[in-house]
Amino acid sequence: MDVFEVVVVAFWAMLPAYVPNNVAVLAGGGAPIDGGRTWRGRRLLGDGKTWRGTAAGVAGGALLALALNAVRSPAGDAVGVALPAFPLAVVVALPAGAMAGDILASFLKRRTGRERGAAFPGLDQLDFVVLALLFSLVAAPGWTTDTFTLPVLAVVVVVTPLLHLSTNAGAYALGLKDEPW
């Protein structure tokens, strides 16, 4: 694969994991997952992690993966790249892993004394990637290792923080987030 192809495959394969947290911001609210419970004097997760946001995020990512499957051939032809199809297990695993990664990051933030919305460089940008890939690896190991080759993983690790920071800055500018990171 040439560089262009690697970048396109990386972005395509990660889209179902990139979208869930954005959907959760738009559809969130409602009952927090932790139910207000605390551990060692701090909330487990906080009010920002809700059942509705999590369910909407997983559903949004899964629907996007199905839509990408539907347009895979014409999209691949248009850019001249063989795009991977998402197996059904991955349709759910990537967005579920992304949401689980975000929830785990929230838990870790609370344990380190950070409040909701506080920056945690590195963790904020890659938490969802690690768990999305792990969930995908468990759900469809062959597809995951065939799709996420070392060059593709390298692009994901470099591009994801840039995308994360730019989309969060955009959401902040639109008044959808309280902080720009």
Description:
The structure is a single chain. With 181 residues, the chain is mostly helical. It has one domain (3-173). It is 69% helix and 2% strand. It has a two-stranded antiparallel sheet. α2 (20-27) crosses α3, α3 crosses α4 and α5 packs across α6. The longest helix has 29 residues, at 51-79. The chain starts with a helix and ends in an 8-residue tail after the last helix. The model has no long low-confidence stretch (mean pLDDT 90).
Arrangement of strands in the largest sheet: 1-2
Poorly predicted tracts of residues = none
**H-E order:** HHEEHHHHH
Query: How many alpha or pi helices?
Result: 7
Task: Report the helical percentage.
Answer: 55-70%
Q: How many strands?
A: 2
> Main sheet?
2 strands, antiparallel
Keywords:
181 residues; two-stranded antiparallel ribbon
What is the element layout, followed by pairings?
Blueprint: H1 3-18, H2 20-27, E1 38-39, E2 42-43, H3 51-79, H4 88-111, H5 123-139, H6 141-147, H7 150-173
Antiparallel strand pairs: 1-2
Structure described in brief:
The chain has seven helices and two strands; from the N terminus they run ααββααααα. It is mostly helical and 181 residues long.
